[in-house]
Amino acid sequence: MDGTADKSGERWVDFASAGPGTPGGNYLRLFWQPIAKAADLEAGKALPIHVMDEKFTLYRGESGTPYVVGFRCAHRSTQLSTGWVRGEAIQCMYHGWTYDGAGSCIARPGEDPPGPASRAGIPSYPTREHLGLIYGYFGDGEAPAFPANEYFKNVEIIENHASDFPANWFQTMENHFDETHLAFVHTFGGSHNNLGRAYQLPEMDIYETDYGMVRETQVPGSKLRKTLYMLPNIMRILIPTFNDIAEIGGWRDTYIIVVPTDDANHRVYFTQNLHVDDADLGAYHDMHARFAEKIAAAPSITQLTHEILAGKGHINDYLDHPYLLLLEDAITQGGQGQIVDRSLELLGRTDAGVAAMRRVWDREIRALADGKPTKDWVYKGEEPELGF
After folding, report:
1. Secondary structure of residue 47 in the 3-state scheme
2. Chain-centre distance of CA 66, in angstroms?
3. CB-CB contact of 355 with 124 (8 Å)
4. What distance in Å separates the CA atoms of residue 63 and residue 127, rounded to the nearest whole number?
5. Distance in angstroms (rounded) separating the CA atoms of residues 150 and 114
6. Alpha carbons 108 and 98: distance in angstroms, whole number
7. DSSP summary character for residue 173
8. Are 157 and 274 in contact (CB under 8 A)?
9. Among 199, 331, 350, 353, fewest CB within 10 Å belongs to which?
10. DSSP class per residue in 197-235
11. Angle at which helices 169-176 and 352-369 pack, to 10 degrees?
12. What's the per-residue H, E or C state across 356-379?
């Protein structure tokens, strides 16, 4: 529980571990987590998912309702996602045992009797769909209200993106509290090159709120930039989105949610809201279709990160990657090591946001471990500010 001390002597709890029974994993399981893009799961299909170092089966019933149940059949432990969706149930490929969305075994072909068996059930988990993402709740007891946040006051066009990163999830969380990296990681020929922020280091103020934290930053001659953090793992920010889809719709009002896959990998989800004039809708849909084709054809962020860190390429070789913004971040975070050793750190003035965020996490995780109340985060719709 005492975790690691950095070179300043400040000691942190174990942020990295997200599996069941770990300090960070127990805290994350108090909240709904996105587990897939809704568009990636057709009715009548199933997917294996890996979330917070546990594996589950996600399937969509023929009615369109999504369900999450255990990863394996109770009979001979075969992976359930390889089977078939039958109505609102899923049937194991191996011997046909069938489970409904509540995890109850409703059929056992070949057994006597072949019908339901109460002792053959598997776990099931609350599942919801919202703004193009599917969410699951994996904690104990009753799930909290959903959605936890009314994301946008006026929903217009919603874009959803997701990418896997080959690094511990908390390294991306820390990166979100580090405005200084924009002047380097995203600037020299990269995704933010046109913003003219190279070597422009911001003044920063970060403070706790009823819903999490706020980061206010400002560089000389610019407006105040305000970024919101809904704890435990959501950031709301205005960003210039990805290569090739920025020319229509402008900067996106964006929720970024960081979800551990296991301790060495994670997935980042983006839910973006934008306005497009009626006259531009046709061009926007054409542009977005071309972008989707580029994503499908491009090497994955994980693949390129591993190659670049192995010396088999450089970020400058991939400045046309449709997810350049994510690739830049993945390289820096993967470059720390898939699970960073914080005892090697020497934090400075520019890391004030990282240190402040760690202290809030440290407090909440220790409270949970000690059986004390954690803070009830309440978000009432405050909006971010652009700053450019």
Report:
1. strand
2. 19
3. no
4. 14
5. 46
6. 7
7. H
8. yes
9. 199
10. -TT-PPEEEEEE-SSEEEEEEE-TTSPPEEEEEETTTEE
11. 130
12. HHHHHHHHHHHHHHCCCCCCCCCC
